[in-house]
Amino acid sequence: MFMRHRYNSCVEILLEHLSHELHEVKESALCCLMKFAAGEGQHPLEDLDWSEHYSFPRELIQAVVPVYQSNVFTLMSNISVPSQQSELTNFMVKQEAKHKDWKAAKLNEHKRVFERMWLGFLKHKLPSNMYKKVLVILHDSILPHMSKPTLMIDFLTAAYEVGGAISLLALNGLFVLIHQHNLDYPDFYKKLYNLLDPSIFHVKYRARFFHLANLFLSSSHLPVYLVAAFAKRLARLALTAPPTALLIVLPFIYNLIRRHPSCRVLLHKPSTEDEPLEDPYLMDEEDPAQCCALESSLWEIKTLQKHHHPDVAKAAMLINTPLPEKEDDISEVLEITTYELMERDLKQKQIKSIPLEFETATQLLKGGGGDVLAQHFCLD
Amino acid sequence: MGKVPKKRSLADKVRKTKTSTEIKNNPFEVKINRKKFDILGRKSKHDVGLPGVSRSKAINKRKETLLKEYKQKNKSNKLIDRRFGEYDTKMAPEDKILQRFAMERQRVHDKKDVYNLNEEEELTHYGQSLAEMEKFNDLVNSDDESEEKGLLSAELTASHFGGGGGLLKKKTSGDQQEEEGNQRAKSRQELIEELIQKSKQEKRERQVQKEEAQELTEKLDQEWKSIQALMVKKTPKGESADKPEEKPKLEEYDMRVRELGFEMKAQPSEKMKTPEELAREAKEKLQKLEADRLRRMMGDEVGDSAQSQVHMSADDLNDGFILDKEDKKTLSYQDGKWNIGEESGDDKDEDEEGGESDEEEESEAEEDDGDEEEEEGEEEDDEEQDEEEEEQEGGSEEEEEEDGHSDLDSEQESEDGERKQEDEETSAKPSTSLSKEELKAQQEAAKAELPYTFTAPESYSDLKDLLHGHTPDNQRIIVARTQKCNHPSLAAGNKLKLQKLFGFLSEYIGELATRSPPELATIDRLIPEMYTLCQMFPEAACKAMQTILGDAGHSMEEVLEVKGHVAFPTLDMLIYLKVTALLFPTSDFRHPVATPALLYISQALTKCPVRSLQDVTSGLVLCCLAVEYVSFSKRFMPELINFLAGTLHLAVQDKTSLGYTVVPPFRPSGKCSDLLVLSDSESCKSWSKKSLPLSATHHMDLRNDLDRDHHRLMCLSTCLDLVKRCCLLYKDLISFTCIFQPIRTLLSKHLSSQTLPELLQELHSEILETISSAPVTHARLVLDKKKPIPLKLLTPKIVEVLDYGKKRGSTREEREKERLKHKYKKEFKGALREIRKDSRFLAREKLSEVMNRDAERKRKVKELFGSLATQEGEWKALKRRKRK
Question: What is the pTM assigned to this prediction?
Answer without folding.
Answer: 0.55
